[in-house]
Amino acid sequence: MLLGCIGDDFTGSSDLGNTLTRAGMRVVQYSGTPATPAAPDVEAGIVALKSRTMPVAEAVRLSLEALDWLRAQGCRQFLFKYCSTFDSTPQGNIGPVAEALADALKADRVIFCPAFSATGRTIFQGHLFVGDRLLSESGMENHPLTPMTDPDLRRWLALQAREGVGHVPAATVWQGPEAVRAALRAQDHRFVVADAIRDQDLVVLGQAVADQVLLTGGSGIALGLPGNFRAQGLLSAEGPQWRGQAGPVAALSGSCSRATRGQVARHVADGQPAMEIDPEAVMAGRTTARDAAGWALSQKGLPLVYSSADPDAVRAVQSRHGAEAVAHRLDAFFAECARLLVAGGVTRLITAGGETSGAVVEGLGVKTLEIGPEIDPGVPAIRAGETLVLALKSGNFGAEDFFAKAAERLAG
Ligand SMILES: Nc1ncnc2c1ncn2[C@@H]1O[C@H](COP(=O)(O)OP(=O)(O)O)[C@@H](O)[C@H]1O
Ligand SMILES: O=C(O)[C@@H](O)C(=O)COP(=O)(O)O
Predict the structure, then answer these.
(1) pLDDT in tens, 6-17
(2) Which residues pair with 124 in a beta bridge?
């Protein structure tokens, strides 16, 4: 294993897997830190944690445990993958986890670059944009768990870190890898936010950090890394393999993000079977996973079970029960749904939402995910077992017809 990655959620990890696979690396994503060594042909290993929103100390502990395992597999470079919308709170977990990893690896410079231009996430003057909106006006300010209310990554990261935060501006990135390396050397701070607007900027950054032991970012920051390994003759010529899966299909969505809500609306408008879950009914035990899975298994086409709701509805239920309690209950609901669906014969399962997908993968007890071809930017097809394939869609990713497209891609 050459590149060792730690993802702070499951969809984000598969997004990174997608970038690395497209660039020709053999990638396996693991659910949590494995207890056994990796297969010998894995070139990039991604340990997916559900650490984005857990208490800081627990996120740090799990990330260090993942790092130890990746080091034991022989990795020479490490990547901490978080969300392209920098999902975190003023307490963490991006800053504290990065600090712990940097200390363990004795990294003297660590770049932070969540940019992912293919999905409209760009960084300019240290500020993160989603399309033509600042992060804090993109809808992410209403996220149920990590409302992003400040688009200045330097300021937001500084709240979470013991140290100050430097910056490499776009004008430097445009001068190429050598200029970026010089700018990194000249920084007063160990943590440095790097601007990136285009894929080309991400490739330059990837080249510039070829010798840095630790880097952090969204999946975009990995764009240039396979090329670094290939240039050293370290990648196998054969590349990744993929085998699709026929059979019953179902989709589960606990994502309340704007893109998912559009995809749910499209699915309903297309006349596909859809069951809306009222969180109040789940909290009160009036709607159970058995009801939802039973309904889905009785449908033709692509049944979708969703709790996706708009920000007002999310706020209302959270104010009655607390955000964590609702999320916990719904995550458990979707995990149980997934178990019942797979037990009932579903072979293609599509999930929307990072927390939701993490809960589902953990609930299914799947430990090793082989990354396959891209469905939409940031979302690959995944083989999770002999007869099970998955698509784990990040809340804000995917075209409007994502559910239908994923069902088809998983079969192919
Ligand atoms: N209707 C709802 N009201 C409140 N919280 C919800 C609702 N539906 C889902 N949730 C919770 O909101 C969180 C959404 O996060 P996630 O699954 O990561 O989606 P995304 O990828 O869009 O951020 C989950 O923990 C989920 O259980
Ligand atoms: O970088 C991204 O945007 C994604 O890879 C990601 O991490 C998404 O997380 P969720 O929106 O919670 O699915």
Answers:
(1) 999 999 999 999
(2) 127
pLDDT surpassing 90 at residue 206: yes
DSSP 58-111: HHHHHHHHHHHHHHHTT-SEEEEE--TT---BTTBSHHHHHHHHHHHHT-S-EE
Tell me which residue of 346, 203, 240 sits closest to 21, measured CA to CA.
240
pTM: 0.93
State whether ipTM is beyond 0.95: yes
Q: Which ligand is nearest to the CA of 331?
A: 1
Question: Which residue segments constitute the domains of the chain, with CATH numbers given?
Answer: 3-231 (3.40.50.10840), 249-411 (3.40.980.20)
C-beta of residue 235 within 8 angstroms of C-beta of residue 225: no
Mutate to test the pocket of ligand 2, among 8, 13, 15 (most ligand atoms within 8 A of CB): 15
- 3-state SS assignment for residue 145: coil
Give 300-320 pLDDT, tens digit per residue.
999 999 999 999 999 999 999
Q: Answer whether 351's CB lies under 8 Å from 391's CB.
A: yes
CB atoms within 10 A of CB 54: 16
Could you tell me the two tokens for 84?
Answer: 């392209």
